[in-house]
């Protein structure tokens, strides 16, 4: 079953990342205050980015990956700026050991590697950071390439022009 990972821009300027099998219905729910608690508190919301997947599981997995990203990293993705995305994904602290890394950071690193957004896990056999992450085209776990919807497709689903184009 096809799935979508989407990013909404809320009235307060924050971003909400979600996934669904029916994008049009889910957008209506968010706009009517029937979606997530977060978006209900920050209406109105606007669709700014969408990726389409062949399986909902891949869209959900991608949602969880992006939810852990910084605002700058999300904005680089939405703008299609993969060079900046690469820079934002680099390990910054070469002395941090695996033992002191949080479970979240380790999981994120391994997830990025599994997604194909890292060249190798970020820790060597001595449990020290050993590489920089290399952000590339986002790939799903199943190997299927997600497809970003064009501005025209986003407009037909949401009824409004997206503020950031995602055309490749």
List keywords for this structure.
4-stranded antiparallel β-sheet; alpha+beta; 168 residues; 4 strands; disordered C terminus; globular
Task: Describe the strand arrangement of the main beta sheet, using strand numbers.
Answer: 2-1-3-4
Shape: globular
Instruction: Count helical runs.
Output: 7
- The number of E-state strands comes to 4
Mean pLDDT: 72
Q: Radius of gyration in whole Å, from Cα? A: 17 Å
Unreliable sequence segments = 95-103, 119-144, 160-168
Task: Give the fraction of residues assigned to helices.
Answer: 25-40%
Portion in strands: 5-15%
The largest sheet is: 4 strands, antiparallel
One letter per element, helices H and strands E, the order comes to EEHHEHHHHEH
How many angstroms does the end-to-end distance come to?
24 Å
Structural class: alpha+beta
Commentary on this structure:
With 168 residues, this protein is of the alpha+beta class. The chain contains 7 helices and 4 strands, in the order ββααβααααβα. The protein has helices spanning 23-31, 37-41, 56-67, 71-79, 82-88, 103-115, 151-158; strands spanning 3-10, 15-20, 45-53, 147-148. Strands 2-1-3-4 form a 4-stranded antiparallel beta sheet. α4 (71-79) packs antiparallel against α5. The model is unreliable at 95-103, 119-144 and 160-168 (pLDDT under 50).
Task: Please provide a brief summary of the model.
The chain has 168 residues and is α+β, with helices and mostly antiparallel strands.
């Amino acid at each position: 079953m096809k799935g979508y990972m989407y990013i909404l821009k809320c009235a307060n300027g924050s971003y909400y990342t979600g996934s669904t099998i029916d994008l049009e219905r889910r957008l209506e729910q968010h706009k009517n205050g029937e979606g997530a608690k977060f978006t209900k508190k920050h209406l109105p919301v606007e669709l700014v980015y969408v990726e389409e997947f062949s399986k909902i599981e891949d869209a959900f997995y991608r949602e969880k990956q992006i939810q852990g990203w910084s605002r700058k990293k999300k904005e680089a993705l939405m703008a299609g700026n993969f060079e900046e995305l690469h820079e934002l994904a680099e390990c910054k602290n070469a002395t941090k050991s695996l033992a002191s890394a949080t479970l979240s950071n380790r999981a994120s690193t391994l997830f990025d590697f599994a997604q194909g957004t890292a060249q190798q896990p970020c820790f060597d056999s001595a449990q020290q950071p050993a590489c920089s992450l290399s952000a590339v085209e986002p790939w799903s776990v199943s190997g299927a390439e997600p497809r970003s919807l064009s501005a025209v497709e986003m407009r037909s689903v949401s009824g409004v022009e997206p503020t950031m184009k995602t055309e490749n």
